[in-house]
Amino acid sequence: MKGTRIPVWLIILADVLLLAIGLCTFAYFHHIRILWAPFEMIEPTPHASFEKPEDVGDFSETVGAFLSSTGAVTKLSDDVQIRHFLENNGFPMTTYERSKYIGLYQSKNIFVTVEKIADTGYQISAGETAMEIIYIYDIYIRNVENLYTSAYKTRTSITNLINNVGYLKNASDESFTAGIPIAAMNGDYWGNAYHTLTALRNGKLYLEADEIESDILVMYYDGTMEVYTQQNYDKDAIQAKNPYQIWNFGPGLLDDDGFALTEFNIDHYDTNVITTAHPRAGIGYYEPGHYCFVTVAGRQDRAQGLRMVNFAQLFENLGCTVAYNMDGGGSSQSYYNGKVLYPGDGRDLFDIICIGEIKDKNSRIQQAAGGDSK
User: Fold this and answer.
1) Could you identify which of 101, 152, 177, 374 might form a hypothetical disulfide with 82, taking C-beta atoms 3.0 to 4.6 angstroms apart as the criterion?
2) What is the three-class DSSP state of 311?
3) Are 245 and 200 within 8 A, CB to CB?
4) What tens digit of pLDDT does each residue of 36-71 get?
5) What does the buried/exposed string (b/e) look like for 62-87 if buried means 16 or more CB atoms within 10 Å of the residue's CB?
6) DSSP for 129-185?
7) Residue 214 has pLDDT above 60, yes or no
8) CA–CA separation, 205 vs 186, rounded Å?
């Protein structure tokens, strides 16, 4: 008696299904699981620290004009009032026509304005416009530690990262945060083990590498920021200069003269990430003590997002000398004064970059919301 012959088409189908299952299993363990595997929600353990030198990190001589001279705290949220305040004090004002201020915070140590551009005809380039929603934070800080990061070993919501900054300690293992940050944005998704090769947070080194693939941004204790590429990266030279933060995402957005780059390292960055409009998040540097956060909404009917070249051009227009692209897409999120301004797609994050009041060496909270409010 002859056995039943299996149709050729069924054998082929079975082979295809087995191959698909194998590829999916490989992708899960080598790409997906490594990114999304749950860890305990605790601060990661550093293996080295870079302590703040005594003679750096105070920018009062360069940014003092923007800070409260009396110690009083000013909080404003109305566009007209904010413009009036800026004009009366001789502070610079936005040049975007379809922009309005939604926040201003001034204390002895921090000055932040937040503007929202909501423009259905935002000019991306000559002859090209799009619908955009952009948040721009103009930031002045007295001390380098007024800019700090909140990072967990696992992903959690931006709200949890903001509400649990109290555990943070500096490189000397001293607590330096006090209360809820004034402003915050997502960082570089540092827990992405497939992508991130080096990471430094608040003077504590969690990951280091002899070579890098993507551009990195280093913030030093003297307040300066520099972008390093594969070509000019030197781990020992960077560590010798006392780094305070190292972010690993990128790319860098400006050249050495502050002009927008038009070509990027596509060997590491997916072409779609560079050439297609997406939600964006980035940080800009002017001089020690003066920075900006920028969040661009996207993947919405009223907000397309920006291509990388247009994101770079935005930072050139702002007058930054250094600018760096953080994690974007659904991770692009920003916060100000108790409210998440742009939640992205609501995904959990590994880390955020914060602007907030800190404690001095005697553990007394810097003049903050407890002062007089105008």
Assistant:
1) 101
2) helix
3) yes
4) 333 344 667 777 889 888 888 899 999 999 999 998
5) bbeebbbeeeebbebeebeebbebbe
6) EEEEEEEEEEEEESBGGGEEEEEEEEEE-HHHHHHTGGG-B-TTS-B-B-SS-SEEE
7) yes
8) 19
